[in-house]
Amino acid sequence: MLKAIRDIIKLATMKLQYSPERSGFIKSLFIPISEWNALNTKSGNTGSGELPEWHKRLLDERIEAYENGLEEVFDSEEVLKDIEKDLY
After folding, report:
1. Torsion angle, CA of 9/12/15/18, rounded to 10 degrees?
2. Other beta carbons less than 10 A from residue 87's beta carbon
3. Cα separation of 88 and 75, whole Å?
4. What is the tens place of the pLDDT at every residue in 18-77?
5. For residue 2, what are the CA distances in angstroms to 5, 6, 7, 9, 81?
6. What pLDDT, on a 0 to 100 scale, did the predictor assign at position 60?
7. What is the separation, in whole angstroms, between the first and last Cα of the chain?
8. Rounded distance, CA 73 to CA 75, Å?
9. 21, 27 in Cβ contact below 8 A?
10. CB neighbours of 46 closer than 8 A, spacing ≥ 6?
11. CA–CA gap between residue 54 and residue 61 (Å, rounded)
């Protein structure tokens, strides 16, 4: 739990820049390369295009749950419409 709190604090203190539209909706988010590299290092992402082993295991677990009917599936278009409805 303490690690998760530290991670949230770290994200909150990043020097992010964003580009809002006239409506105030954020359309772009810029992360300084030093912050991006630090996130990649911490997550174990080497930039090689390969998924880390923990991510592969998680995907395998979710695929298995889906195949066994234990994972609920949503239509992506419907999800996006629902999200957009709440934004405006």
Report:
1. 160
2. 7
3. 21
4. 777 777 777 777 888 887 787 777 766 666 667 778 889 999 998 999 899 888 888 888
5. 5, 6, 9, 11, 36
6. 94
7. 34
8. 7
9. yes
10. 40
11. 11
